[in-house]
Amino acid sequence: xxxxxxxxxxxxxxxxxxxxxxxxxxxxxxxxxxxxxxxxxxxxxxxxxxxxxxxxxxxxxxxxxxxxxxxxxxxxxxxxxxxxxxxxxxxxxxxxxxxxxxxxxxxxxxxxxxxxxxxxxxxxxxxxxxxxxxxxxxxxxxxxxxxxxxxxxxxxxxxxxxxxxxxxxxxxxxxxxxxxxxxxxxxxxxxxxxxxxxxxxxxxxxxxxxxxxxxxxxxxxxxxxxxxxxxxxxxxxxxxxxxxxxxxxxxxxxxxxxxxxxxxxxxxxxxxxxxxxxxxxxxxxxxxxxxxxxxxxxxxxxxxxxxxxxxxxxxxxxxxxxxxxxxxxxxxxxxxxxxxxxxxxxxxxxxxxxxxxxxxxxxxxxxxxxxxxxxxxxxxxxxxxxxxxxxxxxxxxxxxxxxxxxxxxxxxxxxxxxxxxxxxxxxxxxxxxxxxxxxxxxxxxxxxxxxxxxxxxxxxxxxxxxxxxxxxxxxxxxxxxxxxxxxxxxxxxxxxxxxxxxxxxxxxxxxxxxxxxxxxxxxxxxxxxxxxxxxxxxxxxxxxxxxxxxxxxxxxxxxxxxxxxxxxxxxxxxxxxxxxxxxxxxxxxxxxxxxxxxxxxxxxxxxxxxxxxxxxxxxxxxxxxxxxxxxxxxxxxxxxxxxxxxxxxxxxxxxxxxxxxxxxxxxxxxxxxxxxxxxxxxxxxxxxxxxxxxxxxxxxxxxx
Length: 704
Ligand code: NOJ
Ligand code: CA
Prior knowledge:
With 704 residues, this protein is of the alpha+beta class.
């Protein structure tokens, strides 16, 4: 696997300065690691342009002496790796993992030769580095007070950001200059359930930037395990960023025992925005899958008893309007409120719809007791995950679904009581096995229990992984909502199939998402992993439901189709209600056909905040799908088809915005036509304001 072991040592200026340069395999990126006056630092450049100016490295500890200064280099090793691997599910069948690595050992003479290591991996599309803490007599346990990693910027970049927060990522994005962040923080910090905004100016990762000289820079982390999540402090005047770890209830940040290491800090960089979306750096820095058998992990396209709870005014999660319920209560004695959504009859309709239209599964929320006062009381035992409401027959419904070739997706809202969930986890998963469920949507709405922990703290980070691993013991796939944002762990734990951890479609019913939102998410939140964005809303004007709501989903109908391609996830919901899909059966056809697992991906055009056009080849099939989206501005997408095999004709069915379409005018105006394309075809296609474009491509049926 390791091709060469070479040492590129360029400079020993004096005793107090050591510096070493490592380049990416293509030579475009150049990392310089230095130790000056005992303090380690790094800088990064891309094609001679500075990406990160000299930035300190180190960790401040609460108990033992810190890992900040007094270092000398006692060893360094360099190697090159160039291999490939295949994800269980993904955007492409084969992923290249090619980098040059530098591993430095840093010794603190004054701490009895205590040492740590820093491992740098320089890929063609960016840098990853992490701290490593080998086991040694001088270092066994330590408590992290703060990680002091700096990310000093070379300019006042344009930045797409959400406020730093210990508990949520469900903020709308703000676009500004880095220097403007402190001044915009109050406005950007909109109200969200259980939020805990960081007091000093800071941003969540993944954060996306564009430098004045045209570099696209994304900062995040990879393989977040047994460590708190990292936000970034922002010094707007000095254009400096630095790590800000999520604390625990007593104010510490992490508890580590050697041998161990930090997650990878990642900087993806290119002069082309399309390269950022195509980057597999974060996945490459995660470990191969931990599971021997992955045959049970499958892509899922699903519908659900869900969106109606947000918009219809007719149905809800709770069975009754009683308050102050307990899990020991006899819910069959409560007076039904007549609006319970998860009833036998209603769920059967969704199962029928799923079966008729080829969906794999139906998510059912509100099936279990406890929804009467699930939120806001910070109570520990809200749900037991095994007791259905009296009008939801678990066995009969699963048998019915099975008879139609459809699965029911389990829902475990924990109301962020992780303690209660962990206590009940095995019983809950056993219950799923006994009743034929193979996937669960988990949720962490509200303030975390154990009280004082945060959604992003080390304890909770370990909780989510514990849930994913335990689920694997039961061959269950997990889609977590409100968990810490992903860091590529779906490579290692591929049954952790998708996550929310961002502002998703539900917010279209709670104030709306900006038309540009979908053009930013792939550059930010989705850098870490697949998102359960829940696209597919056809009835975008919500006044339709007569609830008095004047809200609208801020896209055209066609843009909702395009999301299935631009927003990668092997788990995709068709979130609207069957009755709405039945009104637009020709448009539904695209959702029915679109793949969710891919052999290959071609990012054709992209600019964060403005537009994205992506083509993908379906896994194991000669079918291609194209999605194009724009922000609030109309635009013309430039489509090429050179990814198609040469010399063959294909039938491309185009779902396009109507001439009069727009997210706030006639969102449901669209056209569908089929044309012939070859690998040579070039096409210009108009997208409406807030609009999109979706294409499905198949081999042309030969006429006799
Ligand atoms: C928030 C989730 O994002 C949403 O999908 C779910 O319906 C509610 N929590 C209730 O669990
Ligand atoms: Ca949510």
